[in-house]
Amino acid sequence: MVSERRKTRQKQATILLSICKAIAEAGTPSHRLEGYMQIILDKFNLDGQFVAFPTAVIASIGEGEAQRTYMIKTKVGQINLGTLQRINGVINDLDNNVINIDTALETIRHIKDQESKYPGWLIILAFGIVGAGFSTLFGGGWLDVTASFCLGLVTGTFSRTAEKVFHLSHVVVPFSATVVGFLAIMIHHYTSGINYVLVALSGLIVLIPGLGITIAMRELSTDHLVSGSGRLAGAVTVLFLLSFGLALGYLIGHRLFGDEAFTLSPPTPEWFRYLAIVITSLAFAVIFKARLADIFWIFLSIVLAYTGSQAFKLWLDQPFISLATAVLIATAGNIYSRITDNPASLMQIPGIILLVPGSMGFNSLTAMYSQDTISGVQAAFSAALVAVAISVGLLVGNLFVPPKKDL
Predict the structure, then answer these.
(1) Sheet with 48-53, edge to edge strand ranges
(2) Which residues of 163-200 are buried (b: 16+ CB within 10 A; e: fewer)?
(3) 275 pLDDT band (50/70/90 cuts)?
(4) How would you write 154-180 as a 3-class SS string?
(5) Within 10 A of 396 (CB to CB), how many other CB atoms are there?
(6) How far apart are CA 239 and CA 381, in angstroms?
(7) In which element (H, E) is residue 51 found?
(8) Rounded Cα distance, 170 and 154, in Å
(9) Computed over its alpha carbons, how large is the radius of gyration of the chain?
(10) What are phi and psi of 76, to 5 degrees?
(11) In degrees rounded to 5, what are phi and psi of residue 73?
């Protein structure tokens, strides 16, 4: 009897560790991961603690002297909404006695094999669509949107290649920024009709760690100081690499084609912006590897974020626009989670993407590289305020409608 119970406990500990690793590598923030793992501990009637960091998780599982400590090495994963959804489904089935522990463990071990298998060309195309979509939202003209789409394809191609070439993966951020900056200057020279600063920013938008900055600020505000500090340092490092690469690309471009001022074109029509939101929603679903069944909710989240921020502009200024919109998104995500029993992240993350301060932080460092220190400091301060506002907004949204789960 004792031996049978011990085997059951070992299986439970194994499945806990497997779930923890899968959730961490799906891009889940530390505060959400620790909270969710504590819920699963309670379901199994186990004693334990989890401490999560961006690249590792320390877990102590067991009772009294029988408690064992594990260290799980994790990769800094990109957001993977499909994996979060599938893990949530396994836990629901286990909780409702639809499957047993052995089946749950086997499913979790092969969770990566169940990922949405979007072809490589579609993922690269999604990078281009997101670049074009953000160029539209930033007020670019038709030529800006077209150029941003092309440079987004370049960024997507490098990102996909870096997944297969180990040494390129370490320099893909500055290398992509250098190539995109140079190509933006070249396109401007031969067309004399694009805002190359806006086009380069849009083409690199997927690499800009705005969401990472926001998550770091939220972790710091929820007393996860080590994880928040580490994540913030990583995000700022990526911003420096992007800004350095872009400055180098601009330098090469200006030396070859001359130092020309960028062109401001009339923005695209209002109807095209709404169309861009729809198409960009589909592209984000591909980049975040979401299931096809969840695309509608991603679309609804982005629509809420855009229309909400536009409406709040009538009464508020930044950073309070981001604060109010974050409250709206957090509340909507928690309502969705309570109704469907799915993770709130499915609706919250795509909406937050439109609010994150990455572009402001990027412009801040770019201005500093251009010796415009005052503008750079002002932009950096504005980016920090927006990140804090979004973090506070998400916490306030949890007060209005408490989340059913921490995912």
Answers:
(1) 48-53, 56-61, 68-73
(2) eeeeeeeeebbbbbbbbbbbbbbbbbbeeebbbbbbbb
(3) confident
(4) HHHHHHHHHCCCHHHHCCHHHHHHHHH
(5) 15
(6) 15
(7) strand 48-53
(8) 17
(9) 22
(10) -75, 95
(11) -85, 130
Q: Which of 28, 254, 35, 277 is nearest to 132 (CA)?
A: 277
Length of the chain: 407
Q: Tell me the pairing of strands 68-73 and 56-61.
A: antiparallel
What is the Cα–Cα distance from 88 to 83, expressed in whole angstroms? 8
**First-residue to last-residue Cα distance in the chain:** 35
What's CA 123's distance to the chain center, in Å?
15
Cα angle: 346, vertex 48, 2; to 5 degrees: 120
Give the list of residues 6+ apart from residue 119 with CB closer than 8 angstroms, or none. none
Q: Which residue has the tokens 């530390």?
A: 30
What's the pLDDT score for residue 183?
A: 92
Q: Look up tokens 């994880």; give the residue.
A: 227
Closest-CA residue to 209 (of 322, 33, 11, 76) = 76
pLDDT at 375: 61
Q: Which of 221, 137, 205, 208 is nearest to 393 (CA)?
A: 221
Residue 340 DSSP SS3: helix
| Banded model confidence at residue 125, pLDDT cuts 50, 70, 90 | very high
**Measured on CA atoms in the order 203, 323, 290, 75, is the torsion positive or negative?**
positive
CA 153 – CA 202 distance, rounded (Å): 11
